[in-house]
């Protein structure tokens, strides 16, 4: 290998590998098609590898090209993060931390952690995005986020998980429902009610735990709706489309039209955990993790 490759060659290759079309890739890169073809050919010659199978009107990646696309895409993301971190430090910003979270984590956990962390790191920059559990897993593996807050029992091997909150479940009822905290006995009182639950796609392990609550009470729930957003649950309950079960951290007395009954006498509890990629070398992530007990 002649070692004449430059960063631009890698970006040119990724563009063609994504579009599988030299003209479209050239337009996206703002260079001429013949010029792009020459650069890719030079890259192939320098590497001694055939990256594309070229047919009349069709371009396909070779096995070597597919491998290189997967690896380079990840490493170029790493390089972008390194350059971004350097720019932040140059601008006097202590670093950038990207969060993913399920809605219940935003009630108290994340705001409290951020307030505590910012006291010691006033120049740190945060970005936050609500994502379901699986999207957080995918985003952590692809390094699109640095840290996640999930309701999961297990995560892939490359990720680290740490429980930070174990809490009761709560029933969510319409405000005018005849059962309240004083006359509530057990869940069997609701065996004829329709339920609005978090979708199993939100978290299979969380959904299974909720199903165990019903199993212990000797009935299968009538599930009228599934959703991944607490706000949708509350709106549906308020309008008497059913009742629900949610983590206690989603209990909010300021929500109009619904009421909560904490389920303190059942064995099932739900756990909120923080997760991160073991290979993530973002220095501000390591600082942040020291604030999580």
Automatic annotation (TrEMBL):
Protein name (record): LysR family transcriptional regulator
Record InterPro entries: LysR_HTH_N (IPR000847), LysR_subst-bd (IPR005119), WH-like_DNA-bd_sf (IPR036388), WH_DNA-bd_sf (IPR036390)
PANTHER family: HCA OPERON TRANSCRIPTIONAL ACTIVATOR HCAR (PTHR30346:SF0), TRANSCRIPTIONAL DUAL REGULATOR HCAR-RELATED (PTHR30346)
UniProt keyword Transcription regulation present: yes
Pfam assignment, any one: LysR_substrate
Key word Cell division present: no
Record-level Gene Ontology MF annotations: DNA binding; DNA-binding transcription factor activity
